[in-house]
């Protein structure tokens, strides 16, 4: 994952005090306000995408890395699923496949951007989301979403490198590229999550075996400590594949934790193993304490708001790092809601609720969003890019997922925009998912999420003790 300088950075050099300019003051207990906020920001974001000049189909502006375009499309899918608004479905169908490539591996030969293992991985996860939503390509000549995800999985297997560190994916795909000697938890975490989700979706043990192998390698290499109650659940950035693989980069970002949380939750459901329960619990507990921790209190200390701890307070987060909240919220939401027919308490309720509210206050009524949500105001001095906007949308969708209940997990074959099923989910206002009132019902003909449920009851119990 890399960062590139935004053309807007020079315009934002002078600091300004946060000001409230037509905030999106959402009510987490009212679905209409959540959907309206998401629609406002989505419209602004899609306009940013379609109005860029020169326009590249399926890609964000050139200062954004390749993986961030995948996050953009994943957010479009989530938006359609949880708001019932199919406005952007045709754009997704047309433009997503523009970046599939001739070998259906998300490595288009005409790409002007550098493509790394984490880049293709986020495209594969987006394809996996489409498969779980039961979507079929409208154009029958396009490959299925499941085949796209499995193609990347197979490529990852072929790139698993035992010549250094006894395994692991390298960040870079080719040896001539700077960064080839780095084995990162972003690429390996994506491989882990993809394997776990493929295992849940297909029931094929090959995938879950690989998920176990990847996690074991991550742990043995010293990149995570989530094996026992004494472990902290941290996920470090990666390790240099030279010098005996002892040089660990101990920086940490929310996206790294996100992939391992979601993957571990999926593996716990699939295997019912206490080992995976412990791992999911510790990883989620670390995320709760680190990215929503006490140092993130705002106002009177009663609200905890998500922060990209490693860079946000310093004001030096890159474009890539600003995408982390998007990944974190999506992973947490999926780990919470994918529980077929099971009512469970929600994970990190206060932090998720307050972060969603703070996101509303940090976005203008024109759909522009600041990155630092703890300001509780839209700050025009901050950037308002794709990472900021997709993160805000995912924060609001997290509330809708938790309140609307469990998804329909039957293996579906439909190109209809998916929607959540009504009822059956966690409810409450102060702690677990808020009670959301709706003026309409989900589309009854749509389907959502083929795959196994994610049982996180014990994870939730642990996390509630943290709050």
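Q: What amino acid sequence fits the structure above?
A:
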């Amino acid at each position: 994952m890399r960062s590139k300088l935004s053309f807007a950075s020079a315009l934002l050099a002078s600091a300004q005090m946060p000001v409230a300019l037509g905030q999106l003051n959402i009510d987490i207990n009212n679905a209409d306000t959540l959907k309206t906020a998401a629609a406002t920001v989505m419209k602004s974001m899609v306009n940013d995408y379609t109005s860029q000049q020169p326009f590249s189909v399926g890609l964000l502006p050139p200062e954004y890395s390749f993986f961030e375009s995948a996050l953009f499309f994943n957010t479009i899918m989530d938006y359609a699923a949880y708001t019932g608004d199919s406005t952007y479905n045709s754009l997704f169908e047309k433009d997503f496949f523009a970046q599939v490539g001739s070998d259906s591996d998300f490595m288009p030969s005409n790409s002007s951007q550098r493509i790394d293992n984490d880049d293709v991985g986020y495209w594969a996860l987006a394809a996996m989301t489409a498969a779980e939503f039961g979507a079929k390509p409208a154009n029958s000549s396009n490959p299925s979403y499941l085949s796209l995800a499995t193609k990347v999985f197979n490529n990852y297997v072929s790139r698993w490198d035992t010549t250094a560190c006894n395994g692991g994916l390298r960040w870079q795909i080719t040896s001539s590229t700077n960064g080839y000697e780095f084995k990162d938890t972003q690429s390996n975490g994506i491989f882990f999550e993809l394997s776990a989700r493929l295992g849940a979706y297909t029931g094929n043990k090959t995938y879950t075996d690989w998920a176990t192998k990847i996690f074991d390698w991550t742990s043995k290499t010293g990149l995570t400590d989530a094996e026992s109650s004494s472990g902290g659940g941290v996920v470090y950035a990666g390790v240099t594949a030279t010098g005996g693989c002892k040089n660990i980069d101990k920086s940490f970002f929310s996206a790294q934790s996100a992939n391992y949380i979601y993957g571990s939750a999926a593996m716990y459901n699939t295997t019912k193993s206490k080992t995976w329960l412990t791992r999911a619990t510790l990883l989620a507990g670390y995320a709760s304490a680190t990215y929503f921790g006490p140092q993130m209190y705002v106002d009177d200390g009663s609200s905890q708001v998500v922060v990209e701890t490693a860079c946000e307070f310093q004001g030096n987060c890159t474009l890539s790092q600003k995408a982390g909240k998007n990944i974190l919220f999506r992973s947490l939401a999926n780990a919470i809601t994918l529980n077929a027919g099971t009512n469970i308490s929600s994970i990190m309720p206060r932090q998720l609720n307050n972060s969603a509210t703070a996101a509303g206050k940090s976005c203008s009524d024109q759909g522009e969003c600041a990155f630092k949500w703890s300001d509780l105001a839209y700050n025009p001095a901050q950037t308002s890019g794709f990472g900021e906007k997709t993160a805000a949308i995912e924060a609001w969708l997290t509330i809708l997922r938790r309140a609307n209940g469990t998804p329909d997990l039957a293996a579906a074959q439909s190109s209809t925009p998916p929607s959540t099923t009504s009822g059956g989910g966690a409810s409450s206002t102060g702690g677990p998912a808020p009670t959301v009132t709706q003026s309409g019902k989900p589309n009854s003909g749509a389907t959502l999420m083929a795959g196994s449920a994610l049982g996180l009851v014990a994870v939730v119990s642990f996390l509630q003790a943290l709050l």
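Q: And what stands out in the fold?
A: The longest strand covers residues 182-184.
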